[in-house]
């Protein structure tokens, strides 16, 4: 039996590579002739950079940037000199996991650091950019990124706007003449892990703002502010991308990537799988084991287990999901090619215990799964 192991990270517990190793270790305890192949994946959120570097052999580089609150920090990015390709993960510079719950402020967080990473890539001579857009702490529609790349966003008095999405409600002028001219020669692909538009009931502010510290009143302000930004962007560019699938990713960074960088928006898991040569690996597999921290109804919007299941279904390979938690709506995964799904907990436990024992629980579930398969008639 050949098993392809391709989990995403388990947030706050294990990286994708660590999760894959834990699953492989559990399978190894079964003995017998089971061949495993580890292929850590990501869907555009945290860990995407690690997955891309592992898949391509790119160099890991570090740049001095600003985090989502404007504080100096260091962020990694990837550089593949042979193809002149840069890999930039938004979460490295502007990620939610870098902030404590008390620091999360959707009103004022900024994507400035993402623009600084892109500038570092341009300085290295990048001709192609893969930009992953999950795990953001921001809701500024990419305004901070634009400012870092040379755009000017001004209020009615001609003053440059303060960082953050709330400031966009005062936006009166959008001057793109100062954008870095090297962007014109940069081919951009943006990996998104959701399919939400920029505005409205399914928009960036309404759906994702609350997890970034936004109150109900804040959500209304932010949605109106992003609408104003979209209006002025459409006026400046002659085209409107607010309703584009994925425009609402990362607090509107999907919108900015398409509108101002000319990016092709692709489901993040598809982009990472393509870089990892997933289809070739899948060809020899009898079973795929994938997983992430939580499987739920929203996973269908582009999360790793669903992307893996859809690809495997086309090749007739069964897929099992190991998830930290099976949350409401998870059964919809069966319609996408998932053969079975299992939660990790072996009894009632607090979140801290579940996180601490994640590797152990993954190994145990993987071992039990393979022992069951080998016990079946004809196995």
TrEMBL record:
Top-level class of the enzyme under EC nomenclature: transferase
InterPro entries the UniProt entry points to: Glyc_kinase_flavodox-like_fold, Glycerate_kinase, Glycerate_kinase_RE-like, Glycerate_kinase_sf
Transferase as UniProt keyword: yes
UniProt keyword annotation of Transmembrane helix present: no
Molecular function per GO: glycerate kinase activity
Record's keyword terms, sorted: Kinase, Transferase
Protein family according to the UniProt entry: Belongs to the glycerate kinase type-1 family.
Full protein name: Glycerate kinase
Organism this protein belongs to: Halomonas kalidii
